[in-house]
Amino acid sequence: MFFKIDSYHKLALKVHLILGFLLFSLPLSAQQVKLEKPLLKDFRDQDFPKMTLGDYFTLEGDDFLYRLIDGLPHYYSDQQFQELLQKLRPELKELYFFSFLTWSVSNGGFSEFYENGYQYMFPEIRKFYNRIGEEKGFEFLENAEAWSKNRPKEEVWFDFRLDALDQEFNTNKAALDSRVEAYVRANSHLYVRDENGNVFPSIFSGKAISFDPLTQGVKEIQIVNNRKEGKMTITSPEGIILREFNFENGVQVGAQRYFDFDENGDLDKEEVFFPDTDIKEIRYYHPNGQLSYQGKEAPNYRKVGQQTYWHDNGTVKYSYMMDANGNHTAPYFEYYSDGSKMLEVDRRENPPKYLNFWDENGVQLLKDGNGIYISESGSLPETVFRYEYQFKNYKEHGIQKMFRNGILTDYREMSDGQLHGYYRKYYPNGKLHQEYRIENGKVLEFQEKPLFDNPKLVAEIETEELESYLIQKEYELSDQYPRLLNKNEVLPLITVSNEVFGVYGWDTKMFGSYLLHVDENGKVVGNDFITADNGYVSRSTESIFPHLKFEPGLKNGVPVKSYIWFKVRVWLEEGNPTN
Q1: Residues sharing a CB contact under 8 Å with residue 97, sequence separation 6 or more, in sequence order
Q2: What's the pLDDT at 464?
Q3: How far apart are CA 497 and CA 567, in angstroms?
Q4: Phi, psi dihedrals of residue 43, rounded to the nearest 5°
Q5: 49 vs 469, residue with greater confidence
Q6: DSSP string, 123-155
Q7: Which candidate, 552, 439, 450, places its Cα nearest to that of 500?
Q8: I want to staple 332 with a disulfide (CB 3.0 to 4.6 A). Which of 219, 278, 314, 320 is the partner?
Q9: Residue 342: how many CB atoms within 10 A of its CB?
Q10: What is the pLDDT of residue 9?
C-alpha cells in the first residue's frame, strides 16, 4: 500500500526549529565548535557550505555527507528553495539532489521520492553518478522510472516490485555512502570549506575539536595523517566526560566507555573491540559500579557465547549460553539477590517453557511446569509491573493477571495455552477498557468502554516569542510581539470529536503549533505550520485563526506585522452528567 507522509518541507521545518532552539541555548564553549547555518541572503552565488575541522576529520559515511549538506542555508518555501538552487555550484547541486534521493528512499522508499515530486532531480543525479563512476546507480534510476510509469493506478496492499527495488537500494546504501564520501574527500575543494573559508588540507595531523549533537557538548580527538588516533573524548556542556573511545589507525580498538549524563558521570557501559573479529564484548554497570551485564555480541546485536547478569550487590542474577546463531543452548536458573533460586526457564522454544519457580521465602509455587509463576519488574522508578501466571503441563492454564502499580491492567482466562473464557483490558485507573468472550481461541463477544462516562474536551492555548526561529526564517523582528486578547472566547471553538481519542487513546493529550503572521491591526493574515499530532488537531486549530484577536506587535512604538508561536493542546476529562 502506498502511504504519503509529511512533505520534506514540513519535516525540515520541525528539524530546523529544534536545531534553532539548541543553538541558542548552547554555552559558549559548545558554540565555538558548532557552525551556525548561514542565512539564505548571506549565502553567495557559487559559495560553499562550511564544516568544522573536527567534523571533517571525524565523521564518516552518511554522517559526513549529512553534516556537509547541513551546512547549506535553511529554506522555508518553494521560492526560497529555488533561490538556493540558483546559488549552488553544479557539483553541489548534484550532490544535494542525490541526498534527496538517498534519504527519501531510506525513509519511505522510491514512492516517497515520487510523491514529494522530486523526480525532476534525476538528470542532476545522473550527472552525479557519472561523476563518481557509480554504474549501479543508473540501474536504480531506470528501474524506478519504469516502476513509476507502470505503477498501479489504485492503492494496493503491497507492491512487491517496489519493495524489491527499495530493499536493493538500501542494501547498497552503505557501500554507496562510502564511495560518495571518498570522492567528496578526494575533491573537497569542489564541495566544502572550513570555518574560515579555506580548503581542507589533503593531509592533516593535529587536534580536532567539534560539536557533538547528541550530548550538546564537545568532541575532541587527535588526528594523525587523516586518521583518528588515541583517545576520543566527548564532554557535556558542563565539561563532564560522557564518552571515551579508543582508536588505532582510524579503527576503534579496546574498551569504549559510555558514562551517565547525570552530574556524577558514572560509568554506564563498555564496548570492547577485538582485532580480527567482528564480535565485541558488552558490559553494563549498576550506579554503584558493580557489573550489571557482561556478554559477547555479534553484528546486528546478536548475542553469542556466555551471557551473565548480576544484582547490584554482586551476586549472579542469571547466566546462560548462546550458540553462534544467537539461540539458547539449555535451560538456566534465575536467582534472588541473596543467591537463592527464583526461576528455572527454558528459552530454546517460543513461547518459553517455565519449569520451576520459588518465591522469596523459598516456597516452590511452580514445579515441573505446574503451578503459579509471579514476576515483578520496573521500567521506571515510579512504575512497577507484576505478572501472575498459572500453568498446567508447561502451558498457561487458568487465570493470568498483569498489574501496573498495583492496579489490574490485563486479565486472561486460559485453557491448555489457549484463550478460553474472558479476556479483559483495563485503563491505567483500573476502569474496564475492553472485554472479549472467547472459546477455544475464537472471539464470540466483544465490548469496548470509554475511559470517561461523560467525556469533556479541554483545550489549552499558549503563545510564545520565538526570535531565534524568526532569525533563521529571515523574518523581521519586533520590539514587542503580538498578545492574544480573546483566548477565553476562542477556546470553546476548538473541537475534536471523542471518536478521535478512541483511536489515539482516551488519555492522550494532543498537540499542534503554528507560527502566526499577525498584521498591524492584530489580525491573523498567515501562518507557518510547525507540528501537529494528527490532522484533526491541525484542522481544528486552523479553524479558529479567523476568530483570533491580537494586540499587534510594535516596532519603534508603531504597530507592525509581527509573528508569534501559537500552541494548542487538547485532551479529555470527566465531565458532569447531563440531564
Answers
A1: 118, 121, 124, 125, 128
A2: 96
A3: 19
A4: -90, 110
A5: 49
A6: HHHHHHHHHHT-HHHHHHHHHHHHHHHT--SS-
A7: 450
A8: 320
A9: 20
A10: 34
Q: For residue 578, what pLDDT is reported?
A: 62
- Look at residue 450 in the predicted model and tell me its pLDDT: 85
Residue at 406: amino acid letter? G
- Helices H / strands E in the chain, number of each: 14, 31
- pLDDT reading at 123 higher than 70: yes
The architecture of the domain spanning 455-574 is: 2-Layer Sandwich (3.30)
Angle between helices 90-108 and 61-69 (to 10 degrees): 120
Look up residue 318 and give its amino acid.
Y
In 10 A of CB 437, how many CB atoms?
17
Return mean pLDDT, the chain. Answer: 89
Statement: residue 393 has pLDDT above 50? yes
Assigned C-alpha cell, 222:
587527535
Instruction: Extract the C-alpha cell encoding 568.
Output: 494548542
Which three cell numbers, joined as nine digits, stand for 237? 556542556
Rama region for 420: left / alpha / beta (φ>0; ψ in -120 to 50; rest): beta
The dihedral of CA 370, 372, 377, 383: what is its sign?
positive
Residues 240-255 have pLDDT tens digits of 899 999 999 999 999 9
The Cα–Cα gap between 422 and 417 comes to 14
Contacts of 327 (CB under 8 A, 6+ apart): 348
State the Cα–Cα distance between residues 114 and 152, nearest whole angstrom: 14
Domain residue spans in the chain?
8-190, 203-276, 455-574
DSSP readout, 71-90? TSPP--SHHHHHHHHHHS-H
Helix 90-108 and helix 160-186, axial crossing angle in degrees, nearest 10: 140
Q: Which of 502, 512, 514 is CA-nearest to residue 536?
A: 512
State the Cα–Cα distance between residues 106 and 99, nearest whole angstrom: 10
Would the CATH topology of 8-190 be identical to that of 455-574? no
Per-residue confidence band for 152, with pLDDT thresholds at 50, 70 and 90: low
Handedness of CA 358, 364, 368, 373 (dihedral sign): negative
Single-letter amino acid, residue 48: F
Q: How confident is residue 403, by pLDDT bands cut at 50, 70 and 90?
A: very high
- Give the whole-angstrom CA distance, residue 362 versus residue 364: 6
**What is the torsional sign of CA 170, 272, 229, 241?**
positive
The CATH architecture that domain 8-190 belongs to is Up-down Bundle (1.20)
One-letter identity of residue 337 = S
Q: How far apart are CA 507 and CA 431, in angstroms?
A: 12
